[in-house]
Every structure is written in structure tokens, then in C-alpha cells.
Amino acid sequence: MRFFFASPCKLTAMRFEIPDHKILVHEIRFPMHWGEMDALGHINNAMYFRYMEQARVTWIASINNGQVNSDDEGPVIANTFCNFYRPLVFPGDLVARLYVANPGRTSIDTFVNIERADESGTVYAAGGATLVWVSMKDGRPVPLPSAIKALEGQLPALPGTDKPPALPEK
Predict the structure, then answer these.
(1) What is the pLDDT of residues 121-137, one digit of tens each?
(2) What pTM, to 2 d.p., does this model score?
(3) Into how many domains does the chain fold?
């Protein structure tokens, strides 16, 4: 079986490596909710994708006059992934840090680190998604908005200070 990825992430031992050349663009803090836990007593894995979505959506709205998309164009996800490092357990607040890398003509890679607010620097999960800007009329790719395209060529923020933890040895 061969895998093809639109994003330049590297797959290692079924874990995607998050690039060092990313740029920190947004941070959001929000509470965990009791109802987000599953029968195993920790936050359900599907919720991490919602947390990452919330980070992306609030960032796009913050640079796009409060709008995520218009009647003419907006973002869709081409792919998404999440590396789970530690289980999150209610109660507590979370911090999601959103990074971007590799802005192209119509797409950009986004990456999110999720931490507990009371354990700054301890990454519980890290993931990402490739966003493609599309026409709402025909679904075809269109150029990225100028506010996002302007990120091309900027120096990365916090280089090397937020590496995900190593996988456990077997």
C-alpha cells in the first residue's frame, strides 16, 4: 500500500512529524467539558480535532474581518492528522497554539499543539491540517487571501522550543 500526502509532513512510525519551520500565528484558551470525556475517563480523541478546528476557525476570523468564509470563497480541509501523546482529563483549561507553514498559491499547512493551561510546555497532542481555499460557486481552488499569503517567507516563531515528545521505546 502506498500513501500520498499533499502536505510535506513526514510520516515516521505512524506519527506525522511537525516541521520546525512553522510560524506561530494564533493562540486560544478554552475549557474542557465533562461531556467531552469518553467511557475510558479521558477526553475523547474526536474532540482533539474539534479543538484544532476551533484554533483554525478563530485565527481565520481574526485576520479576515471576523469571517471564516464569504459567499464567494473559503477554506476546506484537504487532510488532517493528530498525534496523541498524553490523555487529557477533565477538569481544566486548554491552550491551543496554531502554527502555519508552506503557504502556496491556494493552500497552507496548519499545525496545532494542545496543552493544559496549568502545564505550560507539556504537549498533550499535536496535529494539523492542509487548508485549501476554494470558490463557493464551483469548489475549485482559488488564491489564498492576501493576509494569509503575506505569511510566506516569514521567519518561524519559537524554533525548536516546542518539539513533541518522543514516542515510547518498545
Answers:
(1) 999 999 999 999 999 99
(2) 0.80
(3) 1
